[in-house]
């Protein structure tokens, strides 16, 4: 696995909290059976999928979310017709049918989804564009396939964070997919996804993060009561309004204060170092929901350690810290 694979510090034990009210087991079992039945129906209809009206596909996607006991709320204007890049933050497997309810689209999905029971068969037969996140050399070909789909007038849905977050934090939008929108000359439709409980507060029960299993996440969702899935359509970004993928990705990234921006890996080190400034403090990037804090003066000014809830991210952050120490030693000895 590549050390540059996008990751998030969220874990099931550290971030995911069940809702206060839960359904009785028999009712939850019925919900689960309904979800599986709808997914299976989709698998059976894939061979004639092109004959099914887009409106019916959108309703089928919303039915999946509703069958899980989650109410759907879509706000904002309608998504543009024709070729369109749909981009959204990523929290749960529910995001996929939720976005399909906004506008039926070809999904960009990680190759591992092919191994999911039922859902893997469905996505493989439904024109999903797969990305192998362990092979960076395959990225240009993936961008070219997205560009081709957009140029044919299809909508393509992408989660640019590259990993799921619990909803209380968010990752930076990766820029590769935005290059496809530039090359195809199509608009970008940002969508902000929220999950809330019956009281209207942010809910993390639907989050599918870290080493969580699909079965455990499914059961947690169908057992919860009062969950609401919100898809907020923000103003579409017209083609030609941004000169490059960097500014286009920045324009599509939501920054509304509802979820803090918490980065991991090498970027976390650089961000924390900048925040430490020249005050002689040692910056420590906290877990999701915690601000970057400073401790007393340290021998190596500006060094930072990103403390995360993921073992992979901890190892990566340690590597980055050792690299910074090595660089500082080279500067001190005049070898750099």
What does the model show?
With 336 residues, the chain is an alpha/beta fold. It folds into two domains: 12-256, Glycerol-3-phosphate (1)-acyltransferase (3-Layer(aba) Sandwich); 266-329, no CATH class. Helices cover 38% and strands 15% of the residues. It has a seven-stranded mixed beta sheet, sandwiched between helices. Strands 11-10-12 form a three-stranded mixed beta sheet. A two-stranded parallel sheet has the order 6-9. Helix 2 (25-45) runs antiparallel to helix 3, helix 2 (25-45) crosses helix 8 (214-223) and helix 3 (54-67) packs antiparallel against helix 4. The radius of gyration is 21 Å and the shape is globular. Residues 261-336 have low confidence and may be disordered.
In brief:
This protein is of the alpha/beta class. It folds into two domains: 245 residues, Glycerol-3-phosphate (1)-acyltransferase; 64 residues, no CATH class.
């Amino acid at each position: 696995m590549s050390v540059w694979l996008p990751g998030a510090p969220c874990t099931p034990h550290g971030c995911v909290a069940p809702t206060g009210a839960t359904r009785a087991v028999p009712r939850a079992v019925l919900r689960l059976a309904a979800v599986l039945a709808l997914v299976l129906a989709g698998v059976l209809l894939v061979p004639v999928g092109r004959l099914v009206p887009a409106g019916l596909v959108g309703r089928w996607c919303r039915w999946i979310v509703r069958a899980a006991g989650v109410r759907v709320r879509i706000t904002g204007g309608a998504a543009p017709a024709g070729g369109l890049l749909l981009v959204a933050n990523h929290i749960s497997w529910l995001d996929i049918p939720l976005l399909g309810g906004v506008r039926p689209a070809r999904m960009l999905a990680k190759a591992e989804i092919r191994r999911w029971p039922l859902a893997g068969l469905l996505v493989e037969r439904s024109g999903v564009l797969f990305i192998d996140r362990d092979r960076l050399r395959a990225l240009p070909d993936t961008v070219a396939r997205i560009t081709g789909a957009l140029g044919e007038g299809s909508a393509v849905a992408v989660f640019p964070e590259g990993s799921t977050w619990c909803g209380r934090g968010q990752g930076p939008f990766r820029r590769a997919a935005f290059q496809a929108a530039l090359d195809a000359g199509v608009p970008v439709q940002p969508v902000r996804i929220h999950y809330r409980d019956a009281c209207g507060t942010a809910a993390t029960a639907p989050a599918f993060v870290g080493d969580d299993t699909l079965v455990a996440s499914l059961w947690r969702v169908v057992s919860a009561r009062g969950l609401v899935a919100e898809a907020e359509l923000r103003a579409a970004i017209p083609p030609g309004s941004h000169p490059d993928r960097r500014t286009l990705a920045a324009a599509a990234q939501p920054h509304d204060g509802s979820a803090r921006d918490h980065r991991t890996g090498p970027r976390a080190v650089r961000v924390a170092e900048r925040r430490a400034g020249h005050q002689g403090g040692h910056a420590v990037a906290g877990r999701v929901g915690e601000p970057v804090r400073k401790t007393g003066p340290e021998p190596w000014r500006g060094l930072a350690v990103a403390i995360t809830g993921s073992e992979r991210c901890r190892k990566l952050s340690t590597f980055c810290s050792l690299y910074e120490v090595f660089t500082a030693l080279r500067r001190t000895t005049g070898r750099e």
